[in-house]
Amino acid sequence: MREAGLEVNTAQAAQGLAAVGVTPEFIREMRDAGLPVESAEEAQGLAAVGVKAEFIREMRDAGLDVQSAQEAQGLAAVGVTAAFVREMRDAGLPIESAEDAQGLAAVA
Questions:
Q1: I need a surface site. Which of 23, 40, 72, 91 has the fewest CB within 10 A?
Q2: 48 vs 17, 85, 91, 95, CA distance in Å?
Q3: How far is it, in rounded angstroms, from Cα 100 to Cα 70?
Q4: What does the alpha-carbon distance between residue 79 and residue 88 come to, in Å, rounded to a whole number?
């Protein structure tokens, strides 16, 4: 994990990462997709809700600029997909941010 640029300073953090399948490759892929993953907690949270680099790319292709691990985690947690973003926009709802999409999905 350190080779991937992620500090893991406790056994508990290492266990948490392993439990949800975070690997150095996962970290590199997320960063290559443009998402800064700066802590073990962020990596664990992303993996726990199933966020992968493809999800980040799909959101951006749909016009939603996901800029943080917290945004990505929140979107995935309520089931936002690129198709959802497109459908809501096609229905005339302006989705300008991850917060907008998350809020719509939470009440849909």
A1: 91
A2: 9, 22, 31, 25
A3: 14
A4: 14
